[in-house]
Structure formats: C-alpha cells, structure tokens
C-alpha cells in the first residue's frame, strides 16, 4: 500500500518536473529553429518598402567617446536587427513593420559610417584599428548598395537620404598658409622688441633674416596658390627660429603686454586711416578727372566754330507739347547728362514722344549743346538752356541764392580749417554753392506751360521705359517718389534738427524719408498749393542753418511734407554710389538705378562692379572721347 502510494505521488512530481523544466527547453529550441530558418538574406530581401528619407545628422561625439560609441552602436545594430526580425507578422501589418525596421537598420548603418569616419580622423595613427573600421564601413556601404540595386530591380523608387554631400561639408580654406605666414611675422616682431631676446645678437640676426625671407615669399599673395614653391620651407625655418625665441623669452607676461600694445597701436592707426580715407574720398568727389575737364574744352571750341544755323536743334516745336513726355535735367556734367539721355531713349518704346529739357551753367553751355548736336538722341527732342538766361532767378527773389552768396556761407566752404571727422564734411562740397542744385524747387517757374514733368538727376541710369510714370495718378499729391525708410538713417531725424522747437512741433522724427533722383511732379498741383513760396518761407527761417545743414533733401522733406505719393520701389533703386552690397537681382528689376553717394561711376573711386551699367551707354570710340584719352 505504501509502495503504491509512493508510486502514485511520483507521477505528479515527474509531470511537474517535465512542465517546469523540459517544456521551456523544448519551446526555446523550437523558437531557435524558427529564428534560424529566418535568415539574414530574408531579412534584407524585401527592400521594396525601404525609404531612406531621414535627415541624418552628424554625431557630435568627443574624440575619447568615439571608440566606445562605435562599438556600442555596431553591436546595437545587429542585436536590434535580430530582435526586430523575430517580431515580423503576417500580411500587411508584417510588411509595414518590416519597412520601419529596414529603414531604422539603414539609418543605423549610416550612423556607423559617420562615427567610424570621425574615429578615423581622431585616431589616424592606429592602423590596425583603422583597418577594422574600414571593413565595417565597407560592409555597411555594401548593404546600402545591394538594397538600392534590389529596389531598382523591382521598379520601385527610393528616396536619397537628405545628407549633405562630402564636398559640401568640406570647407577648404584657400588662404590658410598665407594667414599663418602673416601670423609668424607678427610673432617675430614681438620677439624683436622683447628685452630678453634683444640682447641675443645671434638670435636677432637670424630672426631678421627669416623675416626677410618670409616677406619675400609672401609678396602680394592673398591665397595659398599665389605662394612660391619654397614657402613651406620658409615657414618651417621661421617656426624653428621662433621656437628658439620662446626658449630665450619664457616670460609669457611680457609677450602678452607687447601683443596688447601692438593691438592698441593698430587700432589707433586704423582710426587715423579711416579718417584720412573719409577726407580723401570727399576730396576726390569734388575733383574733376582730366578727361572730363578736357571734354568740355574740346566741345566748346568746336561749337563756336559752327555757323549759327548749325547750332540749332531740330523739333523745337515739341518743347511745350502737353501730350509728350517731358524730362527736367539740371547738370554741368556733359558725360553724365549724355548717359541719362542715351539710356532713357534706348529703353523708350516711342523715343519721338520724349523731350529733354537740359539746364546747365554758362561754362558748360556750349559744350553741352555741341555734344548733342554731334551725337543726336535719335528721334527724341533736346533743349539746352543756360541758367544765366533765367533773369527772374536772382537774390531778391530767391532766399537761397542770397544765402549762397553771403560771406558767412563762403567762409563755411572755403575757410582753411583742420579736417574734421564729423558729418559736416560732406556738406562742404562746393556743389551746394551752386544754384543748379536748387533749380528743382523752381520747376513750375521754369516750365510754366507744362502740367507734368519727370525730374532726373545726372547720376542715374535708365533701364526701362519711363512713359508709364505719366499715367500714375498722384491723388492730389505734388511729387511722386520712392520712399527710403528701410534704414534708420533715412528718416527725418537724420536730416533735420529736432532740438529746434520749430522742427519738433511741425514734423515727425520717425517719418519716412524719400529720394531725389527720379521724381514725378504734378506742376498744376504745385501751383495750386504754392510750393515755391513754402520753400522760400522755410529757407528764410534757416538763414543760420539752425533747422538743417546744407543740401536739397532736407528742404525737400520739409517743403513736400504730406505732399508725397509713394512709388513702387522698382521704379528707383539707390545706393550704387556708396553701397557695394546692392544686389544684382534688385538692379536688374529697377527702372532707374541711382549712383547717389561719392563713388560716382565716372570717377576712379567708383564701385567697379557697378560701373558697367553706366559705361554701356557711352561710345568711347567717339572722336571727342578719343581726343581726351577717355576709356572705360
């Protein structure tokens, strides 16, 4: 009975032992068989759903972390691949899961490549380890290529990963050696001035020799390609000499003090040079180039040799025709005026409808007429007048003419004084003494029979047909102009003295400024609103220049306050006479480009990349141009 009882108890124990021990082993063995039957080849044999559309970013690992990160990443990839492959399901859900797994696997492969490349750069001396990483890199690349090939075979597209190309990532410095050589020269000068090294005559002699060699090697080089072949040898020789200096002078404090002194001296020199450059720029802007001085003399001589009948322009009956397009141009620069007229006519749809009213001074009157007699502006009509013929424009009528002739004003311009680096320097240009600059405030009196006129400065170039300006409705305003309030210095407070209560109570300091150069004037509204008298009243108040400095824009802002109609910006692009960053796209879209500033295109200081827009409207093979040795 006892034996049967023991036998009966043994059976449940064996059953439990089988369930708890042997069953998991059997199940695990069956699972392994299932896993082993799912080969690696099967894992990557379904690339049709692969999508490499991730933005793979570079891994910001420190050099000492690269080795560990590389090994951990690699092991995670293969372990993750095995684990994820077990989770594949049947049907559409299985297909989507595999797509995500494949995409993640390829992303990890790319990460491995980036890490191993970074490791290769950080530790290039370990050749054996480098060889191992290259093998892994090649394996990853092989998987990517095989995946892409199979995808193409199945006729499905694959998106390239949004990674930057190797060429885009490489920033090649073309002036690295040049900068280093210059840095060596600076260090050499420091050692020359230190007390410890100055006493070592042998070192000083060697250092001076190396400096001469380095200066000859540098020359005018601005990039490494300009350096001679022996530049590297000179660099190494100087480095050895500087190392000797470092051994002689091991006191860093003295070196730091000397470098600070050099920086301070350099900054002071820079300030002085900027001040001189500003003065010389304004001085150059006042001068007349030799060619521009020769041309009026040559033209005047030719003009007075003509018969009186040959000195007349054709089509003078069109001068006051109300249905034509009339331009006002006031200038004493023959060549600049020629460019304005030529560029306008060249871009006009119907040149025969365009009439140019040119006013110049007595000295250039004959030259201006002779130029357009010898170089007719196509079918356009030309009128050249002498400002001396405007007998009504005198000191008793014009306050500004009276002020310009005063001794106080003449002293302001011509009295000998030290150069000042303030904003007044630009106002000391003698052009402001000329009434030619203020004729724009007398348009209604100069053209009493016209109802609308376009004013053009002589430093502009026209690039498109301007006839559309006459169809613009100014909506009761007197002037149409392009506003220039994109920058702070184009607002009212930059031109007017708002510390004066008369200015502060009548105008807004943050009001948007606008530009002269290309403006539409409604002369009928001008006469209705009595603009000339408004201008005169403000000029009388500014007798002592307490409201604004000299020039025509400040009184223009005041005279036409709340009387300006804003034009589209593409009508008039400014800045080509001072701002090299004006974009090519902006220039190409502009109807008129304006060389406002001191860097005029006919001067040597003009911005070279903008000079071509101006030169293309001049014929340098013209006889008078050749006689004066003028060239682009």
From TrEMBL:
According to the lineage, what is the superkingdom? Answer: Eukaryota
* Keywords carried by this UniProt record: Cell wall biogenesis/degradation, Glycosyltransferase, Golgi apparatus, Transferase
Q: Which pathway?
A: Glycan metabolism; pectin biosynthesis
BP terms from Gene Ontology? cell wall organization
CDD domains of this UniProt entry?
GT8_like_1
GO terms for molecular function, please? polygalacturonate 4-alpha-galacturonosyltransferase activity
| Pfam families documented for this protein | GAUT_1, Glyco_transf_8
Enzyme Commission (EC) number:
2.4.1.-
Q: Name one GO cellular component term.
A: Golgi membrane
- What subcellular locations does the record give? Golgi apparatus membrane
InterPro entries for this protein: GAUT, Glyco_trans_8, Nucleotide-diphossugar_trans
* Topology of this chain in the membrane: Single-pass type II membrane protein
Q: State the residue spans of region: Disordered.
A: 123-164
Question: What is the uppermost EC class here?
Answer: transferase
State where it is primarily located: Golgi
Family (UniProt): Belongs to the glycosyltransferase 8 family.
Which protein, by its recorded name, is this? Answer: Hexosyltransferase
Task: State the organism named in the record.
Answer: Lactuca virosa
